[in-house]
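Quick one: co-fold with flavin mononucleotide.
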Amino acid sequence: MSDLREVLREIEVFEGELPDFDVSELPADPHELFTEWLLNAIRRGVREPHAMTVSTTGLDGSPSARVLICKDITADGWQFAADRDSRKGRELSARPAASLTFYWSPLARQVRVRGTVRPGTPDESAADFLARSPGARAEALLGRQSAPLADLAVRDADVREAAGRIAARPGLVAPGWTLYTLRAEQVEFWQGDKERRHTRVEYRRTDAGWERGLLWP
Ligand SMILES: Cc1cc2nc3c(=O)[nH]c(=O)nc-3n(C[C@H](O)[C@H](O)[C@H](O)COP(=O)(O)O)c2cc1C
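Sure, here it is.
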């Protein structure tokens, strides 16, 4: 155990060239700054830059988190898609609020977003489903996400069967597939610094628009 502690202590954090975070030039709207940071992460070759930890409240009131892909950022908010009968889907039905955490390691950047979540209309969700690859559609068509699975062979057989159904009917949509949109109430941008002069900026939604300010790191 103590060896592991040493190994972890030796790991360098915030290595390499880190971007500037000029707080004198902040846009009024955090969606704009987020999009700029995301595009920057894509340009810098960050793997899965659109992967984010989505934290919900468990049905027992305890935290519940997992990584999902961010589908889009619109003026309405951050979008992700999942099965409404999965654990997160059931949690969001009971309590439609979530927090998103992005971390782009080579840039030492973290973004945290908190807000309320609404499910998309059946048309919006179907459009998202149909834009997925056939393999991803076959997997989602099973609609049993987060249910216990007795054997991996059952998964493979069921995915094959679902792929067959999709090949026969390309317009098939998984009934539980849901495109969710998180409407942000709070967005925090964190820029790490080698000298520990980290910079945090928090945007808060108010009736009059977005307010923002620095936070102590
Ligand atoms: C990089 C990455 C991307 C993922 N993207 C999604 C996604 O977009 N939708 C989804 O339902 N699950 C996605 N998953 C799987 C989830 O992390 C999770 O295991 C699954 O959704 C079940 O979560 P739940 O039991 O809390 O509902 C992804 C996992 C990883 C590691």
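If it helps, The chain has one domain: 8-129+175-215.
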